[in-house]
Amino acid sequence: MTVYGDLIGQDRAIGVLRRAASAAAEAVAGGRGAGMTHAWLFTGPPGSGRSTAAKAFAAALLCPEQGCGHCDACHQVEVGSHPDVTFVRPEGLSYGVRQTRELVLKAAGAPTLGRWRVVLFEDADRVTEQAANALLKAIEEPPPRTVWLLCAPSADDMIITIRSRCRVVTLGTPSTEAVANVLATRDGVPHDVALDAARAAQGDVGRARRLALDEETRRRRAEVLSIPRSLTGVAECITAAERLVKTSTEDADAATTALNEVETAELRRVYGEGSTGKGLNKGLVRGGAGALKELETMQKSRATRIKRDSLDLALLELMAFYRDVLAMQFGASVELANEDRRHEVETVARASTPEDTLRRTEAIMKCRERLAANVHPQIAVEAMTLALRSSGVVHRG
Amino acid sequence: MMFRIDRDVLAEAVAWTARSLPARPSVPVLAGMRLEVTEDQRLKLSGFDYEVSAEVTLDLQTGEAGVVLVSGKLLAEITRALPAQPVELVVDGAKAVVTCGSARFTLLTMPVEDYPSLPAMPPAAGRVGSDVFASAVGQVAVAAGKDDTLPMLTGVRMEIDGDTVTLAATDRYRLAVRELKWQPEQPGFQAVAMIPGRTLADTAKALGGSGAEVEIALSSAGGTGEGMIGFSSSGRRTTTRLLDPEFPKYRSLLPTEFSARADLSTGSFVEAVKRVALVAERNTPVRLAFRGGEVVLEAGSGDEAQAVEALPVDFDGDEINIAFNHQFLLEGLGAIDSDIARLQFTTPTKPAILTAGKPVDEGANEDYRYLIMPIRLSS
Ligand SMILES: [Zn+2]
User: Fold this and answer.
1) With contact defined as beta carbons under 8 Å apart, do A63 and A73 qualify?
2) Which of A363, A393, B34, B271 is least surrounded, with the fewest CB atoms within 10 Å of its CB?
3) Which of B71, B79, B240 is the best substitution to test chain A (most A C-beta atoms within 10 A)?
């Protein structure tokens, strides 16, 4: 399998990347390499595989066979140890100018193994304004063998000066069929379960996989989607808001714990855990405590971000529900994200008008904006559930 | 894989290799030290932090070929404390078992296939004595910038022209230049490299002190291993990734004609500057007034505490009042490696040159020059 094997339904993007990688190989061999670009912006909805695509391209640039998928270079890019790839994952909510300057410095200079020096910047939309300016300078005048791969949900998330200097690779939302197919063939998920999961995840392969394979993830989704029909009174709205915040916190905690456990165990092993001998049974060797503390600080900052992302995901699921409602109210014959809850969608569609539904989706958007602006989650979500409840008639009255 | 080796030899090699391991590895395998027994009975220990790679090669009496990756920190801790007896390391599945006398350790191994490929050593370019090299690098690296905003100001520039190596560094407030002779592989070899200053200083220190020669590996433009420089000595080698070779055109900054010259005892000058600077805030200047036979040092002003001190000086030329950042002045005095310090001036606002002083009839020793920018005094 080549490095592009994990990209689902992105044939167009893969074509662009393959051509660029062969131009890059030509440049490495001393040719003109026309068609190679030093700054790339990978965009696409969550789960479409922005960073997967960027990583595949990084491997294709560094592999002597342009991404064979099995040589040392491909393997090292895959596990994240290749000396010429710098992975940047802003673990906090933003990425500052100091870090960016250090990064720019690191990205300068010749590649260690002679091909390219690649910076893969996930969530590049999290750079602060100052950091973006520092980044811009580096992208404007890149050293001859440095390649920047930025990832962001959409091109509009990057300041125009950066965007205009990048070649944009847009990843589409993969079709339900393509995602279901991957779950069925690679993960052995029964076809009908795979289809439901794929529809519910709306093109996000990772999310679809979790929905198909993890009972808890399905339970939390059911919890979120029980909210529309539970909003019968003010007290119920407040309880529903509490439930929504709690569920998404649980979801975040589960994700955080899984990540933290692996990292902590790896670090502890570096400092002696699991090894035996005189002096090694008394805990970690020198430097271990400090390194663990540093790791915990990073993990805490990441946990804050994951919590926010998780609540946003729950809101997007609610949004998808009301989008289904609206589609039904307009009689559009589109595939419902909540095909498995068709009955509930119908009930809400009949009990309200399209205007109600639009107002409700606006309330959800408003809530997302307020959360992004650091409003306390319980307060923002309560305001939303109250808005979701009120019918248009009362509102206009 | 297995090998048996003398405890001191191993401990020293492990400690040396561990120096180049990253303090905060971005991936866990980078915390690993790679141990390889080759078919020809050598043990190679390597560490890599992406910028610098270090490798020691040792001869073995007993060994079975193979590779293993273990935590470098852990191995360094263990080998330090081993008793003075032969050490044996045997790889057994996912574990490496170290025995030495009655001591026995079982270390978890790391996935060696995930370990990054080490950079190739560029071709050998020439040799220089390790002690001369270490002291020359020390003299120049002092002027390299510590803050990492402009790469060219954090590096040491190495220019090779035949049998002459010129090292230069500047942080825009001072400039240090050192020339030394070496033995190039090719008589007309020419190359220019910008080496990260801190890394070069560490490397030169790590390879110095043995009295052996250091081999410098560097390709001329367009050759293999471009962008890397290698240093090796007595079975130890390092590679360092080079910076962009851009550097200020420094030769034109070095004045060739002077209006005055002052020779002072380095030791008393250093002590006097330190005492006077005690009252000065960080980065405030020490003012120097040179008159025939005497220099008056002064720091502090207005409400601040003031300090004044006078020193005898062998002075020749126009009287001058000039001020310097005391830290930069002290670092320069520490780098000239001479009992007599020579300062040469043009005007109070133009850079002064600090060199090792010599009796006038012996002529100037210009192997090492430390240019220092004066601080403009508001009158
Ligand atoms: Zn490959």
Assistant:
1) yes
2) A393
3) B71
Ligand 1 centroid, distance to B120 Cα (angstroms): 19
Task: Centre a 10 Å sphere on the Cβ of residue A335 and count the other Cβ atoms it contains.
Answer: 12
Question: Tokens 């200079």 correspond to what residue?
Answer: A109
d(C-alpha B293, C-alpha A40), whole Å: 66
% pLDDT > 90, chain B: 71
Least confident of A67-76, B185-194, B276-285, B298-307: B298-307
* Residue A75 Cα to ligand 1 middle (Å): 7
B106 touches chain A (CB under 8 A): yes
pLDDT of residue A393: 44
CATH architecture of the domain with residue range B2-114? Roll (3.10)
Q: Which tens digits make up the pLDDT trace of A73-123?
A: 999 999 999 999 999 988 777 888 988 988 888 887 788 888 999 999 999
Check CB contact of B81 with chain A, cutoff 8 Å.
yes
Distance CA A326, CA A323 (A): 5
The superfamily (CATH) of domain B254-372 is DNA Polymerase III, subunit A, domain 2 (3.10.150.10)
User: A83 vs chain B: nearest CA distance in angstroms?
Assistant: 5
Is residue B46 helix, strand or coil?
A: strand
Give how far B280 is from chain A: nearest CA, Å.
30
CATH number for the domain formed by residue range(s) A11-170? 3.40.50.300
